[in-house]
Design a protein that fits this description.
Blueprint lengths: L19 H17 L4 H15 L9 H16 L6 H7 L6 H14 L9 H11 L4 H16 L8 H15 L8 H7 L3 H22 L7 E3 L2 E3 L25 H8 L13
Antiparallel strand pairs: 1-2
Helix pairs in contact: 1-2, 1-3, 1-11, 2-3, 3-5, 6-7, 6-8, 6-9, 7-8, 7-10, 8-10
InterPro entries: Cyclin (IPR039361), Cyclin-like_dom (IPR013763), Cyclin-like_sf (IPR036915), Cyclin_C-dom (IPR004367), Cyclin_N (IPR006671), Cyclins_cyclin-box (IPR048258)
Family: Belongs to the cyclin family. Cyclin AB subfamily.
Pfam families: Cyclin_C (PF02984), Cyclin_N (PF00134)
Length: about 280
């Protein structure tokens, strides 16, 4: 499937039960679910893409949002991974808010709405290629993946196509870590984007990163700049949470955290690291 055919346009204005904060909470929670089940990194990206594509075609009630999320995990893991979570495990993760029949029913609804097509390119597919083209070291690679995952959290980033998000993450990582040149002809060739085309998206990614650092009270290092935007660089470790491609966290996912927050209609403090109990 061509990238242009799965470009997701603004849908939140049509949704009267959910908002951008609820989507952010869902994506953050699903990232933890992804780590717990040790799913492949592409599964997370595909899960989020499935959710956004579905939400762009159908009104979803607030109480169905978590159901949509776990059903999307099920579909994405079946498509990408050798092993997918058992439906009964997903029932438990939802604290039995949904039955096996609910999850399978939503799975059928998703497939019907998406025309049984789940093969759209995600930012992950492009990011793997672009990181290789950039001949990135481990630090830069982690930074690029981390920035991309921050982008996944934010509904507003859907205006950028997957390849641009990936290319901008690589560019932002190079600028942040003072890699010179920030962009060159080889990266232009492999990504299809020139440096000026990436500035807007890259600025947004580093602003998310800066807020992440502030929320975590990280030690500030010398700053990098993208188009005049100064950003704080965390010391030693680039990311607060390991990128999804390094899944394997032993975190125990709270089965009621998402439902509780969604029912209150309140978002947690942005990027606060969750300690599920």
């Amino acid at each position: 499937m061509a990238e242009s055919s799965i470009q997701i346009h603004d849908y939140m204005g049509s949704q009267n039960q959910i908002n951008e904060n609820m989507r952010m909470i869902l994506v953050d929670w699903l990232t933890e679910v992804h780590h717990v089940y040790k799913l492949s990194p592409e599964t997370l990206y595909l899960t989020i893409q499935i959710i956004d594509r579905y939400l762009s075609t159908r009104l979803v009630h607030m109480k169905e949002l978590q159901l949509l999320g776990i059903s999307s995990v099920l579909l994405a893991s079946k498509y990408v991974d050798i092993w997918a979570p058992m439906v009964n495990d997903l029932v438990c993760i939802s604290e039995r808010s949904y039955s096996k029949e609910h999850i399978l029913g939503m799975e059928k609804s998703i497939l019907a709405k998406l025309g049984w097509s789940l093969s759209g390119p995600t930012p992950y597919v492009f990011l793997v290629r672009f990181v290789k083209a950039a001949m990135a070291d481990k630090e830069m690679e982690n930074m690029a993946f981390f920035l991309t995952e921050l982008g996944l959290l934010h509904y507003g980033m859907l205006k950028f196509c997957p390849s641009m998000l990936a290319a901008s993450a690589v560019y932002a990582a190079r600028c942040t870590l003072n890699k010179t040149p920030h962009w060159d002809e080889m990266l232009n060739f492999h990504t299809g984007y020139s440096e000026p085309q990436l500035i807007e998206c890259a600025k947004q990614l580093v602003s998310f990163h800066s807020r992440t650092c502030q929320c975590q009270s990280l030690v500030q290092n010398p700053v990098g700049a993208i188009g005049g935007l100064l950003i704080d660089i965390p010391s030693e470790n680039v990311s607060i949470n390991c990128p999804a491609r390094q899944a394997g966290s032993s975190t125990n996912v709270s089965t009621n955290t998402l439902t509780t927050f969604l029912s209150r209609g309140a978002a947690r403090k942005l990027y606060q690291v969750k300690k599920f109990t």
